[in-house]
Amino acid sequence: MVKIVKIVLDAGHGLNTPGKSSPDGEREWEFNSQVVQACAAKLATYGNVQVLRVDDLTGKTDVPLRERTDRANRWNANVYVAVHHNANTGKWGVWTGVETYVMNSPAVSPKSLELARLVGPRIAEAMGLKDRGVKRANFHVLRETKMPAILTEGGFMDSKIDIQTLRSKERLKAQGEALAEALAVYFKLQ
Question: What pLDDT does 5 receive?
Fold first, then answer.
């Protein structure tokens, strides 16, 4: 019997979530959603994969985190991937880079760490940005999921450096495809 790999994608936040924008007002969800769409499209080229998106596809509703993780858990997903884009101060600066988060716990799944180490360098390369490495945090989507889970930060929305890349549809597509390719390596997808 062929095993189906179930991948949850979460384009974090909603269009109108307060504080989730660049200093010029570009909404984080729009960056996140483009990455998730590209990732899902690339994953569709592999066999034996199902994708569940747990955010609102229109971005109009900021789906509560509990609802997102409960759906993933009920679906018995094999992995949870939350896609985000960072902010430092909310004012333009010169910080830069990509980060990949796992749960801040001694009991963090080794599978989460393995996936994070596959994903970070690939999305950094796709974005043409520095890889700031694997970080740990006590985020709801990492803590309340019953499967390996990671959260990506694909660049800083308030960075004069990173915003140039975030404004490129080609780079966001490349980030999503790099994420899908890392998942394909992790799950040995054909």
Answer: 98
